[in-house]
Amino acid sequence: MSSAYKIGPLRATALVSSNMIGSGVLLAPALLAPYGTMSLVGWVVTAGGALALALVFARLSIWIPKSGGPYTFAKHVFGDFIGFQMAWGYWISAWCGSASLLVGALQYMSVFCPSLIENSMFSIGFGCAMIWLFTFFNVRGLKESMFVEGIVVVVKILPLVLLGLAGIFFVDFSRVFNIADIENHGLGSLGKMSGVLLWAFLGLESATIPAEDVENPRSTIPLATVAGVLITAAVYICGAIVINGVVPAEDLVASKAPYVDAARKIFGEWGAVFMIITGIVGIIGSLNGWILIQGCVPLAAAREGIFPKYFLKTNRHGAPKGIVVGSLLMTAVFLLTHQSSLGKCVNLLIDISVLAMLLPYFYSVVAFGYLYINKKNTLSKRERFVLPIVGYVALAYAFAAIVGSGDSLISLAFLMFLLSVPFYCLLNSSNIPRSDPS
Fold first, then answer.
1. What is the per-residue pLDDT across 379-389, written as a single tens digit (0 to 9) for each?
2. What CATH code is carried by the domain that includes residue 181?
3. CA nearest 206: which of 364, 28, 54?
């Protein structure tokens, strides 16, 4: 995407934070409730790993100042084939995983009006309308998309910050910091929680995707990436402390909307209603940023000649026409969740989208290590000391997250990436080197 409008530091930070804070954080406390205090350890560990990845992406954005994010970083070091696979996985993850945002929003709405959500026609109509509403904002151009993003991030984050600040006075800290929970579950439980925790942090690389449309990218992207992760981590950890310390464990396990239940105990019924409304707006609003991303990634890949030329096309507002393709695919995935026979398959595909995003993260960290070795002589003494530590932490985090996903999920993700091979050959047959048969 290329336009006269440029994304400044505040809007770039908003894009990062907004893309991370979605259905994952709002629903995660209930999914992590069985682990008690160990869930808080998981949030801290995951936040540390996410910060290491953010620092890696911040440095890569300086070394490789081009749009595309993880795809571009992988292609720069490993070549076209690996670059195509990373773009393939990231693109699928963006539009497939985004469908879960609508499911999360509907779950929040069911707390407010369960009879309405039981009407499948309403659910389908509402979900499709939201996809195409935010698609409309994005095809109108980057300026309009970023304006909407600014509104969404305020509506999304402000209530969570308010809950964290006010709720701290209602917390039962003996329940939050229970050593027995840590002893009972052990470090092995981190692997079981990894999928939920990682889903909440996906999107930390968002500012690197539209790099060529960012104002002063060499300074703005690193600042926005690190600041976005720090803001998000603070919101997550404070929220986890308040919810675990206010809502009884047995209620939390069965909760459909943990933040709503915590707000009800702290502020009363009006607080619960306010949290429901802002939660729905926040979850749905995350579509705006992800729809932008799903248009930018194939555009960057098409510019390099490894995605179909169609994705090079832009409309009169400078928006990639690939945005519409991604929204069509997102709509198809969402509709399939309403088919009882296919619902489980689609939910599994959404789970795979987490791993599909982790592989580009892993390759980006390896690319970071390769570039560090080649640029070592040009770095300051402080950088030569700090950057390897950051790289090792990010590498360990990405690798552990992939392994912790489980054998079945890894196998299915492998098949998804294997499927990319014939598409690569089909799209790039003229560029694949051939040996002389003679």
1. 888 889 999 99
2. 1.20.1740.10
3. 54
